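> forwarded from #structure-qc
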């Protein structure tokens, strides 16, 4: 774990190795048996949730051993660290569809496992993450006591901690839907480019504002770009944001501010490259330092990793709990 802020001039490119790449494979989306329920069946499903929750009884009087579940998730990442950022993305995208006006979307129903949601453009490659977690679901869902929705969000916080980030509070009690009609429309996740920095900033605030996030929380959540990389086959963009794509730290901010970013003339979609042409930033990343209100938080986090970790943990917990109800805090680490 990197415990102190990293200066842009100190980062080492040679740490970007082939083993630190997340390479999506073109495979068919994971098959999920989903049926369309009648309104009566839907009410019955919702009524199966206990009215009151405690730490010993969540589903049908049982609670999975969440520490054991978390340990198995951590082992997946330990065996292949580049899977960690994808599990963070799975948790993020399963939660980031929430709309506070219509009260739809979010992590509550676990709908990202459905083919219909996996087919959304922003979710390219997440069928792999779903498949990695399926053996864990089968292992611990002994008495209908583990939901996919809980598993995916738990995987996100476990991945962040395993890759050197903060321990984020997590709560259980999400109840899976088996109705594909609960899948939200495509387009609720943020785009990387809206044609101009001003329009991109407006778009970012619109997407995150729909979920109830302010500028500080937007910038804090953007720090997740310390992890992983883009793939042309998935998003049209290519490359890592930092030279340590399997380490959670504040390097994203220090590089964003400390390096000169220029347009990459070789990519099909607009993106930026650093002087050595080994790292990249998206238009939405550059917007964070071109918009004065965003930039002040980038500057704070670039100098104070502890503050970043604390603010990220709060924002990520909020993200994962959007649209949920009757959750119970769980000690998982």
């Amino acid at each position: 774990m990197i415990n102190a802020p990293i200066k842009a001039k100190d980062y080492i490119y040679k740490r970007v190795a082939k083993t630190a790449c997340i390479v999506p494979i073109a495979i068919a989306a994971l098959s999920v048996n989903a049926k369309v329920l009648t309104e009566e069946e839907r009410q019955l499903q919702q009524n199966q949730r206990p009215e009151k929750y405690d730490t010993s009884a969540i589903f049908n009087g049982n609670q999975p051993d969440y520490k054991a579940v978390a340990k198995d998730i951590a082992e997946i990442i330990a065996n292949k660290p580049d899977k960690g950022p994808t599990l963070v993305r799975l948790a993020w995208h399963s939660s980031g569809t929430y709309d506070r006006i219509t009260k739809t979307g979010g992590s509550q129903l676990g709908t990202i496992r459905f083919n219909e949601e996996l087919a959304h453009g922003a979710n390219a490659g997440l069928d792999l993450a779903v498949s990695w977690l399926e053996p864990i679901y089968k292992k611990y869902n002994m008495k209908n006591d583990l939901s996919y929705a809980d598993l995916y969000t738990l995987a996100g916080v476990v991945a962040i901690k395993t890759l050197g980030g903060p321990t984020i509070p997590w709560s259980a009690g999400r109840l899976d839907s088996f109705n594909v009609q609960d899948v939200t429309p495509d387009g609720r996740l943020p785009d990387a480019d809206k044609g101009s920095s001003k329009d991109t900033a407006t778009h970012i605030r619109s997407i995150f504002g729909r979920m109830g996030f302010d500028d500080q929380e937007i910038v804090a959540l953007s720090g997740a770009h310390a992890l992983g990389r883009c793939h042309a086959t998935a998003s049209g963009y290519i490359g890592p944001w930092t030279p340590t794509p399997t380490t959670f730290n504040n390097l994203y901010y220090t590089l964003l501010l400390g390096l000169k970013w220029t347009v990459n003339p070789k990519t099909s979609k607009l993106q930026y490259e650093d002087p050595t042409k080994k790292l990249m930033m998206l238009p939405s990343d550059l917007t964070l330092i071109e918009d004065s209100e965003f930039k002040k938080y980038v500057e704070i986090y670039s100098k104070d990793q502890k503050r970043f970790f604390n603010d990220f943990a709060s924002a990520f917990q909020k993200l994962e709990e959007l649209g949920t109800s009757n959750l119970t805090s769980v000690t998982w680490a």
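QC bot note: Residues 51 and 194 are 44 Å apart (CA to CA). Residues 8-21+190-312 form a domain with the Peroxidase; domain 2 fold (CATH 1.10.420.10).
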